[in-house]
Amino acid sequence: MRYHSFSAAATSSIIAALLLVTGQGCSHGVTTVAQYRMGGAATFIEAPTDGTYELFGGGGSRKASYELTKGDNVGFRPGENGHVIAVAGPDEIELPEGYYFWQTHTQ
Fold first, then answer.
1. For the whole model, what pTM was predicted?
2. pLDDT higher than 80, residue 67
3. How far is the C-alpha of 68 from the C-alpha of 85, rounded, in Å?
4. What would the 3-class secondary structure string for 45-99 be?
5. Which of 22, 27, 36, 76 has the fewest CB atoms within 10 Å, measured from its CB?
6. How far apart are CA 39 and CA 95, in angstroms?
7. Rounded to an integer, what distance in angstroms lies between the CA atom of residue 30 and that of residue 106?
8. How many angstroms from the chain centroid is the CA of residue 85?
9. How many CA atoms lie within 13 A of 5 on its CB side?
10. Beta strands 73-78 and 83-88, pairing class
């Protein structure tokens, strides 16, 4: 059996990246406020608080970021031709079918 060893710096980098991705180790939490799954219902809500709302794709890649005010619309609505529309206040982004979600940071 062969074992691989990592340097302390590489191990620290991996742990830091995992903590960043999972939101651990921060004084703020991350809240998913809306999500859309291919073939599912496309719905939106009113933003629960003022703040930065970020749109992510299924692979975890950030697609957009908006500053919203409490009460602004955030979420998804049905689009045409196999698309879904991401909604952030007055702005809309047309996206191909897939998995997407909006998150905000809470204190």
1. 0.71
2. yes
3. 17
4. EECCCCEEEEEEECCCCEEEEEEECCCCEEEEEECCCCEEEEEECCEEEEEECCC
5. 27
6. 13
7. 6
8. 15
9. 2
10. antiparallel
